[in-house]
Amino acid sequence: MRNIKQFVSDVITKPPLLFPLVGLFHIIWLIGTIWDDRHVHFPDIAWLEVLWITGYTFFWMAASDLRKWGALGYIVLTILNSCLYFAIANGKLSVDYMSNMFLLDGVLSFFLLVYYKRFN
């Protein structure tokens, strides 16, 4: 089992430069979403967006560590999010329920597929 220092070192040095930069973006995006929802009571539907972004951040960090399960999890989460977005695109629920950056997530999933052979 690695310590946090070794994990951060591996995430920064093992993958191409795109991966740690996108990981930093995901962490900032998660913090920003939590900050935006800080006034909303916890068992509210607005907190589901935080759950989505936490999943994206978790899987991207695993993919940055060159883990295949992280890449596959990110891609599956992107497909699920895109399907839900198009299924309920006109309702208010779509704004609060899903990540609204599903197009960017699709592009990032493409980069994961390009580098998939290098993963463990």
Plain-language structure description:
The chain is an all-alpha fold. 72% of the residues lie in helices and 0% in strands. It contains six helices and no strands. The chain has helices spanning 4-13, 18-36, 47-64, 68-87, 92-97, 102-114. The longest helix is centred in the middle third of the chain and has 20 residues, at 68-87. The mean pLDDT is 83.
Summarize this entry quickly:
This protein has helices at 4-13, 18-36, 47-64, 68-87, 92-97, 102-114.
Helix content: over 70%
Distance between the termini: 16 Å
Rg result: 15 Å
- The secondary-structure element order is HHHHHH
**Can you count the beta strands?**
0
| Strand residue percentage | under 5%
Approximate shape: globular
Mean pLDDT: 83
Q: Stretches where pLDDT falls below 50 for ≥5 residues?
A: none
How many helices?
Answer: 6
The major beta sheet can be summarized as:
none
What is the SS-derived class?
mainly alpha
List keywords for this structure.
120 residues, 0% strand, single chain, globular, mainly alpha
Helix and strand arrangement:
Elements: H1 4-13, H2 18-36, H3 47-64, H4 68-87, H5 92-97, H6 102-114
Helix pairs in contact: 2-3, 3-4, 4-6
